[in-house]
Amino acid sequence: MPKDLQKRTSNPQAVPLGQFIKEVLAQQPSFASKPLGEWKDLVGESVARHCAPRSLKNGRLVVVARDSVWKHHLELNKEALVRRINERWGRRVVAEIRVRVGEIEEVSAILDANYKRLQKIKPKKAPKRKKKPLLRKLTDAEKEFIASLKDKDLQKMATKLLRLTHEEPTEFLKSSP
């Protein structure tokens, strides 16, 4: 595990779990945007202009070289390159390197699809709870009105409805039977 991650994970301050997982996964080679680091720093600027990493999967790094001369150059130095990459991560990230001849275009720094998946992770928001309406106490006139109702279900509904309203009792309640 890289040292900067160890420092962050030992921090006693609370970090949201989703953010923590995203940070930990970003430090893993298969989830990093540049699992090899900066390609120019690894191979040198002149080699980087003529060779580019294409993919890193299951410990196999595929590198595309502009022509057979550059392919031969990488074939001769691939053990040193494997060692350099693995030393950078502190463990075995690349087990083998395969070099192919092909066109070198502007290659995306993202070698692994896992990185794209990691970037799509969005923190989930807690569902908003519905606020219960404030219930008020019934006035004596409202209690009398409810007591005058003969049906028990109607009494329950009237009680609920009156407690939900925020208005003062109306003339309707004062003049009812």
TrEMBL record:
Q: Where does this protein come from, organism-wise?
A: Desulfosoma caldarium
Which InterPro entries does this UniProt record tie to the protein?
A: DciA-like
Domain of life, per the record?
Bacteria
Tell me the protein's name: Uncharacterized protein DUF721
